[in-house]
Amino acid sequence: MFDRNNVQPSRSTLAGGIEILEENADQEVENVLYRGTQKGMKRLEKRQRRVALGDVTSQKANKIHNAIHNKFHLTRNYFDKENIHSPAIQKEQKNTGDDERNCLLVDSSDDSFTDEEQGDEYDIDDLLSRRIKDQQLQTSEVYEDSDGEMQEASEEDVENAVEPLSPINNDEIQNELDKAFEKYFQSVPNPLDDDTNDVVMVVEYASDIFYYLRELEVKYRPNPYYMQNQIELTWPFRRTMIDWLVQLHFRFQLLPETLYLTINIVDRFLSKKTVTLNRFQLVGVSALFIAAKFEEINCPTLDDLVYMLENTYSRDDIIKAEQYMIDTLEFEIGWPGPMPFLRRISKADDYDFEPRTLAKYLLETTIVEPRLVAAAPSWLAAGAYFLSKIILGSNDWSLKHVFYSGYTSSQIVPLASLILENCKNASRRHHSVWKKYFDQKHYRCSQIVEEWILSTET
């Protein structure tokens, strides 16, 4: 049973930082959550108890939007070609009933954004056309300002225009994969293999099981460009919420599978619906609640979650959000996550404990990286394991590793480089993950990686 006495509640939420964002748009939103979850400071601002779920046309929402987005972000069509439409407004939601309207995260009844102070009104089509027109200015890191001078794009502009990373494929890679398959595939279980006599490993069906998991990771892949369709959210906001979810996940002592499924549910939901900033944290905690029910034997109760949120949202809020999110995802939450693939790859080294443990830390750092939102979990597991072997002094990626991972070294190197890049400033890029794995319980994996990076740079 979760012990409330040993846990400090979250003293602030994303919504609690709204006023700060209005006054200073350049301030990192991480401070809003960190000051509450880590230092137990008082709530930054007293928020309205019942905020309208769909209030994207309110004056406050427009102030946030204008403060954060000095230039409109890039706009892309949905990754799913069946969903090519103006994502900022879901017109089919207009005639929803009262019960469903209460759990909508965006109100679609108004097709304009109005600032009462300025008296300006922007039609949705005009808004999107201006964002598309601005795309040419933001695709490079240098753009021309209103005075005709060349200015360097801000870090936020570049980050919001990220391109997803994916493994390369060519004939040479396919030949290496075929060679690994021919050498190590066994239609009949090897009696000398320890796994053969272990009923839990079900070696007779292992290949079929992982083939099916590879199908699921493609089926439940989120739209890598969904942030371009969000009006108020940005990648830094996502990173902040995930950082908070990692803390919540750690305090409840949940399984790694639960965390990865939580992030997948959030990303897939945001791929289909537009969410306001003041409901973003509700999406995160509801996704955690769904994932815990799916993965855990004993999951946190509603009272536990409400307590951790310091009653910012009620039991009713979480239940309605959970119902709406599940319905939006059509009850499809069987995303496999990277952990089964990580265990599978470690078989190539006879389930060596050290590289697999270090890979868990490297793998968890990927959840905050925008370029890896839609990356296959099997590829992420391979990249984390590949890098962990290098850090531990083994540069060997044999055909056996290729067979059990499904990826060659040439496919993994770009991913491993990105993971390593993010680990160079770990305490800033993914603070909660870094702190979590700095603990002795996790064998100080983050410290090992830090020391290795320093040794290679000197």
Automatic annotation (TrEMBL):
Ranges of residues in domain Cyclin-like: 243-327, 340-421
Keywords: Cell cycle, Cell division, Cyclin
One Pfam family linked to the record: Cyclin_N
SUPFAM superfamilies: Cyclin-like
Every Cyclin C-terminal domain range: 336-451
Cell cycle as UniProt keyword: yes
GO biological process, one term: cell division
GO molecular function: cyclin-dependent protein serine/threonine kinase regulator activity
Signal peptide: none
UniProt keyword Cell division present: yes
Family: Belongs to the cyclin family.
Name used for this protein in its record: Clb4p
